[in-house]
Amino acid sequence: MEIAADANRVAFCGLYCGACGRYLKGACPGCQQNAKAAWCAVRTCCLESHFSTCVDCKTYTEPNDCKKFNNFVSKIVGFVLRSDRRACLQQIREKGLAAHAADRTAAKQPSIRR
Known about the structure:
Layout: H1 21-24, H2 41-49, H3 72-81, H4 85-95, H5 97-107
Helix pairs in contact: 4-5
């Protein structure tokens, strides 16, 4: 599967599934379609609230204030993968989903790097 810009491949937390190795190998359907990701509090919250991403949340305008978004596990994963989901959400807020997908496609990375 090739990397292609598609706003529907943006995960609820701002990562871009369309540039993820597991997604590209067919090992993961992507956040939006992954029913097995019920463990993800961000995904559950966004689905229950009918949000396309955390950007739609009016309770927390700063994602790091949300305990579902900013928890111990996400901090560890972000550190190990040098992933900055907050920066991804900021880019979505500023430029929109399609531009974020295009940027991550061009970079061939699911996340903005720290």
